[in-house]
Design goal:
Strand order of the largest sheet: 1-2
Order of helices and strands: HEHEH
Number of strands: 2
Largest sheet: 2 strands, parallel
Helix content: 25-40%
Shape: flat
Strand content: 5-15%
Radius of gyration: 14 Å
Length: 101
């Protein structure tokens, strides 16, 4: 039985406070394609922290940071949740990402 295209991208879902983000996962040790979805109005994880974490992703084959407009830390339950889900599914469905060409 064949695996779906997204099966080669481990999904890690971690809900941590902004001050614990660095302690939870060392970005330098991540070695799989990585997507960071960040909401514009996220007070729990300000943009500068998301950008700093993204900059530390040195060992990923490719990485992507997407800033979702008009959302908070719970953007997946807010008015722009479909943008969140489209970006996530698009990333997982990529068979040959442009970043690897």
């Amino acid at each position: 039985m064949s695996q779906p295209p997204a099966a080669n991208k481990p999904i890690v879902s971690t809900k941590v406070a902004a001050h614990d983000l660095g302690a939870a996962v060392d970005p330098g040790k991540i070695t799989v394609p990585t997507l960071l979805l960040h909401a514009e109005w996220d007070a729990d994880l300000p943009s500068y922290l998301a950008h700093g974490y993204f900059a530390q992703l040195k060992n990923t084959p490719y990485k992507r940071l997407i800033e979702l407009s008009e959302g908070t830390h719970t953007v997946m339950m807010e008015k722009n949740r479909m943008q969140f889900f489209r970006e996530l599914m698009g990333f997982l469905d990529e068979e040959k990402p442009l970043a690897l060409k």
